[in-house]
Amino acid sequence: MKSTINRCKSMINIAMMPVLLAASTALYAQKKPNNSPNLTPCYMEGLSDRLMCGSIAQPLSDDPNDGVIDIHFAVIPAIKPSNPDEAVLGFAGGPGQGAIDLAAIFNRNLRFARETRDIVLVDQRGTGYSHQLQCDSDDLKTQFVFNDVIADLQAMGAEDTQKCKAKLNIDLSHFTTPVAAKDFEAVRKALGYKGFHLFGVSYGTRIAQEYMRQFPESVLTSTLDGVVPMQQSLAAIGGAIDGSLAALFKRCEADTLCAEHYPNLENNFHALLAQLEQQPVKTQVRHPRTHDVIAFTITKMKFYSAIRFALYSQAQRAIVPMVIEKALSGDFSPLAGMMANVDLTEALAMGMHNAIVCGEDWPNLTPQTRQEYGKTYMGKAMIAGFDIACPILNVQAVDKAFYQPLKTSTPTLLLSGGRDPATPASWAELAMVEMTNATHLVAPTATHGVGSQTCAPKIIAKFIAQQSMQDIDTDCLEEPNDKPFFMNINGVAVANKQLTDTANKE
Amino acid sequence: MINLLKVLYKKEVMDASRDKRSIMAGLYYAIGAPIGMCLLMSVLLQQLASPEALNINIENSERAPGLIAHLNSQDIFASHDENERKAITLTISEDYQQKMSEGRPATVTLIADKSDDKLRKHITQVEKAIALYSSEIASLRLVSRGVDPSLMRAIALEVHDQATPDSKGGMILGIVVLTLILALFYAAMNLAIDTSAGERERNSLSLLLSHPLHSLHIVLAKIGAITTFSMLGLVVILVVSKFSYAMVPWQQMGFSITITPEFMLFSIAICLPIALMSASLQVFVSFMAKSFKEAQSYVTMVLFIPMALSMITTYDIATDKVQWLPIAAQQFALMEFIKGNPIPVPQLLLSTVITLVLFAAFSFLSARMLKSEKVVFGL
């Protein structure tokens, strides 16, 4: 029905993307020399500190005839290098995000850990500067007008997958998680660190676990934030999205003001989805940046996806009830505003993304799991997308042992957000069944990526410093960090009736 | 002649080392200054590292629950207890909710005394927290209208800071180097006065001069002994600094101060001419004075000049011309070295030459003074 790789249906691509680290990025690094472990100063967007960038050549595959690819990395130097033998290794999410581009975010979340240890960021093969596998994507205008209901998505998806495959012209089997883990070890050796403290976010927790499995001696501690268990396909994400959305509706119901302003919100939302499924709405909106009048086709997939991505951010969650109510009354500009910044096909290397999902998340789907995940709207769409793209891409399935839960006694800290629309707390519980030295913390109101919310950066730094969770006070994670809902288009506060009347006179 | 100088130097050093208490008194500064400073900074950093929640007075807080929740998330809380809260008052205006829902700027008044230095930091904290809330609401207002809020950022200013953690210490680095240079002057100050004005008061100076010796030899031997003790002071302060500065958690402030062996050798090389100059200056001033007590006062006063030069550099108020002067230039070179920046070689060379010329001049003048009976007998 739909495709994962898709040139003219970027909005639909977004629907397929299992997990991600919410952050927008752009290329901003200085040119780095190839095939040289020499470190040169470089700067990344949003971070004024000077980093050291470099790259190493890694064989593409076991066959020497396949040649090498450059694996790029950046080191954020410690403020006071009291532990020069150790570094914190950050893994980006996606799959498909480059870690180096996210230097500012890693620096912020690991700021306390950085006081005494370097932070190392490696662009996983296929992402960022390390042989990025990117397919073409659409501009916002095309995305806005595209109607995913009437189009023959199966044929289009297949065609675009073929195009992307031809463009990349490389065997994607060399870009799966087990292969990529070896690059990180090579970087560790090249930089001369005795051990890494791992910090993985979202999909980054999967590669972190694989790295722990392959190179247990190189890992001092591991912090997994938004945990993806090895046993489970990312297609299970549908349940997480619905759960996070249900939590939002429940919170609004429990809030007197919100319940009063947006009565029956959950039912209204589902009614609207049903309506859009039957008949997509065709309208016009102003382009969010150019202000031109552009055509806007609202389908169920587009609407649901926009709401889905708003669930990642505490600020955007605050306007979800209002966006739904406005859409019900036929005003879709708030929806357009929410979609304006979701340009994920640019931020994610889609070729690498598909190598991962087709090599790891598609082959282990069973009739039972297909049925189970297919119960949710997004799960069903995602599986359908896999079924179109993966046979074309022909990525070699990973070994069965890959799906075993990680057995480890390395100190491990697992973090989950109680309202996470991607990796709920139950996923972390599943991941830690064979971990003998693991602590799981849940921040009840946090969304995806606890490391950037509440007081988590301090807890992570203490855990890294003492290599255990003993005596670390984690109460501060309990503090609510959600934001009050918007009650009208202007903000959280509501005036009393009389004042609203005077406002209406304007 | 060299032999003669050696004997004289030996005599001076032996003389000086007999009074162990006085030597130790000179070295107390070298040991105490870095340790004292580190203790002070550690206490200060501890306060910065665990900032207490800021309690302020918020009036009509029930009108702006969203703002209050945001302030709480930034560790700013409303408190009714006047004793535990800071003298900052936030007043939510009566029409806050009306203005907010109409999309007009809603007024919040901050009442505080900005001349109160202790309060200023907290006022900034409150201002920043409110600005953040304001821009967050504004962004969501734009999104709600279908406008990309990034339009509000016409320019994305990307700063490429060339500083390293070692060079960000700024003022503190300056103070570190200042304590080093002051050690040169203070460690052997007692000795300088004792070996000149003191020797005259004990009447052993005339005895020394009655030998068939050139007065310049006597002066140079004295300067040599004083220099030895100043350099000893420098070595002590460097070693103490190396260990004590390493124990302060500077990284919490985003920089580090590391005294490397290379820096220690570099400072010893740079400071030797200063030590010579300081010794000759102190001897000269002491001979000028009529008595021991007078010498003490004069030396202390004269030492203000090198101190001022050093401080000018520390507090970065030096003009480009001052950077060529002795001590200021050496101090600047030491600071650049510790930061890992290139050293200003021409300034350093010129000032070193000037320092040595001053040393020669003071030595020569002291030697000439010793030919006058007025000086020798303190008449």
UniProtKB/TrEMBL annotation, chain B:
Q: Where is the ABC-2 type transporter transmembrane domain?
A: 30-364
Report membrane topology: Multi-pass membrane protein
| Alphabetical UniProt keywords | Membrane, Transmembrane, Transmembrane helix
* Keyword presence, Translocase: no
Q: Where in the cell is it found?
A: Membrane
Which Pfam families does the record cross-reference, listed alphabetically? ABC2_membrane_3
Q: What is its main location?
A: membrane
What residue intervals traverse the membrane? 27-45, 171-193, 214-243, 263-285, 297-315, 345-365
Q: Does the keyword Transmembrane helix apply?
A: yes
Query: Could you identify this protein by its name?
Result: ABC transporter permease subunit
Organism of origin is Pseudoalteromonas haloplanktis
